[in-house]
Amino acid sequence: MWTDTHCHLDAPEFDADRPAVVQRARAAGVARLVLPAVAAAHFDSVRRLAHEHGMAYALGLHPLYVDQAADDDLDRLAEALRAHRDDPRLVAVGEIGLDHFVPGLDRARQERFYLAQLKLAREAGLPVILHVRRSADSLLKGLRRIEVHGGIAHAFNGSAAQAGHFVQRGFRLGFGGAMTFERALQIRALARSLPPEALVLETDAPDIPPHWLYRTAAQRAAGARSRNEPAELPRIAAVLAQLRGWTLAETAAATGANAEAALPRLAGAFAVASPTPG
User: Fold this and answer.
1) In angstroms, rounded to a whole number, what is the distance separating the alpha carbons of residues 205 and 18?
2) pTM of the prediction?
3) What are the C-alpha distances in Å from 49 to residues 10, 44, 45, 258?
C-alpha cells in the first residue's frame, strides 16, 4: 500500500477524467492520498473529494495565492477548522508556507499569512504541510516563533543542514517526481542520506512530473501532455528504493509509517466510512 502525501486532485487538470485518475491510483496500489487546499474557495471541494473517494485532506492558503486572497480568508480558514475539527479525514493545515522563487510576490503578505496559519494549526492541534521553495530558513524562523505539531516539508529541495533542522522539529520531508531526474543531485543526495524516518512520498499531481512524463515548454506548446497523477507514485518510489538500497516492500512500509507519524490522524482517516459531507 502506497501513500501519496500531496495530491491536488481538485485541480482543473483532472476535471475531464477525475474518477479514472482515482481508479488508476487504486489499481497501482496507491491506497491513501492527502489532498491539500490552496485557497479558501477550494476548502469545500477538497473535503467533498476526500469523503467521496475515501481520502484525507488539509485546509490552508498557499503562498502563491495570498496576493489574491482576501484578508478575511484567514477567518474563513479558522471557521472551517472549527467546523470540521471532528472530521477524521481532516489531517493537517496546508498547503501553507513561503515562496521566494516566483518574482513579484508580496513577501510581507506571505509571511503574515504563514505566521497566522501556524497559529491556527497550533490552536487546532494539527500538523502543517509546508510549501518550501527557496524559503527554508524563513520557514524555520517562523517555526521557532510559533511551534506546531510537526508535519511535512513538501517537495523539499534545501540543504542537508536545513533538512536536519526540519527533522529536529518533527517534520518529514516530501520526495516526488523531481527525485527521478539524474541531474537533481542535491535532492537525490538527500533522499539517499537522510534518516529513513524522515522520508515520505508524494506526487504533487498534476505538477512536478517525473522524468518519464516531463515535456519541454516547446513540447507542451505543441500539445504534448505532462500531467502527473498519483498512479505514478510506485514508479517514483522505485527510484527512492534504488537510492536507498531498499526493496519496494520496505519502501512502502517505511514511507507509509513516516506519513502516519507526520500526520497522526492519517490512519484514522482511512479507517472510517465516508459520510456525505455536510
Assistant:
1) 12
2) 0.95
3) 7, 9, 6, 24
Bridge partner residues of 156 (DSSP): none
CA 125 to chain centre: 18
Residue 10, Cβ density class (10 Å: 0-12 exposed, 13-18 middle, ≥19 buried): buried
C-alpha 189/C-alpha 204 separation (Å) is 20
- Which pLDDT tens digit goes with each residue over 90-149? 999 999 999 999 999 999 999 999 999 999 999 999 999 999 999 999 999 999 999 999
For residue 271, give the DSSP letter: S
Q: Which residue has the cell 493545515?
A: 93
Q: Give the sheet arrangement for strand 151-154, strand by strand.
A: 2-4, 30-36, 56-59, 90-99, 128-133, 151-154, 171-175, 199-201
DSSP one-letter code for 29: T
Tell me the fold of 2-269: TIM Barrel (3.20.20)
Taking the CB of residue 65, how many other CB atoms lie within 10 A of it? 17
Q: Diameter of the chain by CA atoms?
A: 49
Helices (H), the chain: 18-27, 43-53, 73-83, 107-124, 136-145, 160-168, 185-193, 217-221, 233-244, 248-262, 266-269
